[in-house]
Design goal:
The structure holds 2 protein chains of 2 kinds. Chain A is mainly β. Chain A contains no helices and 9 strands. Chain A has strands spanning about 15-20, 25-30, 35-40, 55-60, 65-70, 85-90, 110-120, 130-140, 145-150. In chain A, the strands form 2 sheets. In chain A, strands 1, 2, 5, 6, 7, 8 and 9 form a 7-stranded antiparallel β-sheet that branches. Chain A has a two-stranded antiparallel sheet with strand order 3-4. By secondary structure, chain B is α+β, with helices and mostly antiparallel strands. Chain B has one domain. Classes of the chains: A mainly beta, B alpha+beta.
Chain lengths: ~150, ~100
């Protein structure tokens, strides 16, 4: 019977790692970057319908926003533009349809690139709420970011 | 015996001149052909494993990193059981 790999999957099993920072927090969610290019309007006086645009030259590499549980024993990442390293988000291996078994792929997809920790937001301390921290890793566009599909 | 491989982590980056191949500052770790983690190239870099593996496989992994990097992270040179437990989701060997 052929193996049917599903096209639908959740983020369960995804990981984020850093090439220099040991960060042992439990991750709640990972907001992946948005790659965008600016619009340059090129409308002229004889343009009669919609505005006309061309894309700019360079692409914004974006940033990764991560929400994690905040144990107070956590070693914090260093927020500084002078400290650069590689951040890698690895997707879960794809599942086989209707089961929890993974496909026969050996390498999950990943997004990786150099950058720095841009911010670290400490949790809100209030009744009835988990202590959750949020940090942002900014891709600096030096190496990557790259998206490599699963194989 | 486990087959541990460290492969360069490469990707395709967009540029004004088209896609170009870049190499990230880390290796991808494969155990018996399955991608299980990453290790940075710089000395002292953490070893990031996201798959459970037996301790004997971890020892093979450390040996491979040591051979590959020459002067790897302190953990890769002289790992203690405590460090193994802290850095990896170690599971018992099948034959133990």
């Amino acid at each position: 019977m052929p193996i049917t790999e599903t096209h639908a999957d959740t983020g369960a099993g995804a990981t984020i790692t850093f090439s220099s920072t040991t960060f042992a927090a439990k991750i709640r969610s990972i907001q992946l970057p948005t790659w965008t290019v600016d619009d340059l309007e090129k409308s002229t006086l004889d343009t009669t319908a919609y505005k006309e645009f061309v894309p700019s030259d360079l692409v914004e590499p974006g940033e990764v926003s991560v929400t994690c549980l905040f144990p107070t024993s956590l070693t914090l990442p260093v927020v500084a533009a002078t400290v650069t390293e590689t951040c890698t988000i690895t997707f879960p291996l794809r599942k086989v349809a209707s089961t929890t078994t993974t496909s026969n792929e050996t390498t999950a997809a990943n997004i990786a690139g150099s950058g720095y920790f841009k911010s670290f937001q400490f949790p809100n301390l209030q009744l009835g709420n988990l202590q959750e921290a949020t940090f942002v890793f900014k891709f600096d566009g030096d190496t990557g970011p790259t998206f490599t599909k699963s194989v | 015996m486990y087959k541990i491989e460290l492969k360069p982590h490469k990707g395709i980056q967009r540029s004004m001149f088209g896609p170009i191949e870049v190499e990230h500052d880390q290796w991808m770790i494969y155990a018996n052909g399955l991608h299980v983690g990453y290790v940075g190239k710089s000395a002292g870099a953490p070893i990031n494993i996201f798959a459970e593996m037996p301790k004997s496989m971890l020892l093979e992994l450390k040996k491979s990193i040591e051979e590959h990097m020459g002067a790897p992270s302190p953990m890769a040179i002289a790992p203690t059981d405590e460090e193994v437990e802290r850095h990896f989701k170690a599971v018992e060997d099948d034959d133990e």
